[in-house]
Please model this.
Amino acid sequence: MTPFEFLCAGERLEAWPAGALHWPARRLLAVADLHLEKGSSYAANALKLLPRHDTRHTLAMLTALIDLLNPETVVCLGDSFHDRTALERLPRNERAEIERLTGRARFVWIAGNHDPAPPPDGWGHVAVEVADSPLVFRHEAVFGPVMGEISGHYHPVAALTVQGRGIRRRCFLTDGKRVILPAFGTYAGGLNALDPAIAQLFPSDYDALVVGRDAVRRLSWRQLRPDPALAQAAWVREVR
Model:
C-alpha cells in the first residue's frame, strides 16, 4: 500500500488506502466509524442477511496497519461499535484481538452517536475529543471555521465515472484546514462527498483523497458526480 501525503494545518499527514490517517510526527494512527458487530446487529434484527464476519475483517485491516506503522497512539473517531449491545455480541476471538491491539498502543476511543457506552476497562481511554496542537480529533465536524480538525461520522464516498462506468469509492475530504475520514468498518456504507451535509462544511474548494486498492488519488470536488437519491436515503437512515 502506498499512502498519499498532504498537509492539514501545516502538519504532514498520510492517507492510507485502508482508509486510515497517519500522523508520522506524533506516531498517531486515526480510524473512523469501525461499526464493529454491524453484521450481527442486522442478523439479530432480521434487517438484512449479511455475513457476520465484518468485525473480524475490520480488525484484520487495523492489525495490518499497526504491524506496519507501529503507532504509539491509535485514535478511534467514534461509532467504533455499531450499537450499545455490540460488546455483548463480540465473539471471543475478536475480543481477544482487541485486547491484544490495545496492549500494543495507547487507544483513545472517542464517543460517537452509535456507541454511547464506553469500552471495557483496560482497552484504553475514552474522550469526547482529543486536542494535540495543532490538530483536534472529534467524531463529527463542527459547523463554521476551524483549523486542524480531524473527524469522521459522514462516511464520505466519491462517485466517479471511469470509462463510461459509474463507481463509488471511499474517500478522505480535506481543504487543508480540516479532514473528514472515510468509514473504516467493513459494512459502514457511505454518503456522497457532494451531499449538502458535507459540502456546507467546506465553504470554498475541497479535495477528495479517493481510496483505491493500493493507492490514494487526489481529486477536486469538481471532478466528482452526485449519487442517486436512494443511496443518500439509505445512509441517512443508517447514521440516525
